[in-house]
Design goal:
With about 325 residues, this protein is α+β, with helices and mostly antiparallel strands. The chain has helices at about 30-50, 65-80, 110-115, 135-145, 170-185, 220-230, 295-300, 305-320, and strands at about 5-10, 15-20, 25, 55-60, 80-85, 90-95, 100-105, 125-130, 150, 190-195, 240-250, 255-265, 280-285. Helix 7 (about 295-300) crosses helix 8 (about 305-320). The longest helix is centred in the N-terminal third of the chain and has 18 residues, at about 30-50.
Amino acid sequence: MSHQIYEYKDDQNWFIGKWSDFNDVTCFGNDTDYEKNQDIFHSLLKRLGVERLQVHIVQLTSDFHLIAFLVDVINQEMQRDLHLKRHKGAVLIIEKDQLLAVHLPENGIEVNHFFGTDLSDFGDKLLIATHNEGKVREFRQMFASLGIAVESLNDYPDLPEVEETGMTFEENARLKAETISKLTGRMVLADDSGLRVDALGGLPGVWSARFSAPDPTDAKNNAKLLHELAMVFDQKDRSAQFHSTLVVAAPGKESLVVAADWPGYIAYEEKGEDGFGYDPLFLVGETGKTAAQLSPEEKNKLSHRGLAMAKLMEAFSAWQNKL
């Protein structure tokens, strides 16, 4: 253990430190000063992985001088190469081109001033591989809780269409996510979802969006589904599941894959004004409501995409940290 005593003193700041058995900071001043100094000291040392520094603050008027003192002691005792940079009022601590910690002034910093750009251009963004604005709205609401902005293929009109040639939901979702990620260098999420009707042997399945081809539309798809089930009279025999497979891809990284099902029944007529696709015909469990009669919040909690998103949220942060 080092027995060296470290000291920094000027007209307005005075710190004394030593390397010991555990982290500890003491200071002269009132309770407010004490709490502030504790916060600066312990949060910084935790970020830097330091456990043996003890400091007494005799006088403090500059957070920067205290941080510089702590970094200097750590560099000497641990042979580290920490550097300080001041930027727009913040103090950045960097080691080997890695930003390890940021100390902000008490009242914070205006974001546009700090980054020198409009906030709308800053932060992680996820490209949703679809032109369907209904899906985009749902994903935008879900990813807002992670602080991630959502874009769609409508924002990239020059990208080519990726044909869904797979025979399973996962194959199609992978094709879209991984192909577009390679083309753009972006993090991309693709959703392949569809309706599986038990009385039709799982159809329309992966062909859900193209069920009434050529020139399929939601209205034509729903009309065809009702026609195919015209002779299935008992509600219990009209069971179905909405299925969703989500794939998130990024260049040079193994894709993240999750899937979920939403059980229900096919109604005898369309009901509801919200939703899209087969929502007006899909009866949610025993509720008597179709998916199109649910609010967006209700649907996000219950739906196949909402259930798959819940699984995605559990795994997404750990997967993203490996990027």
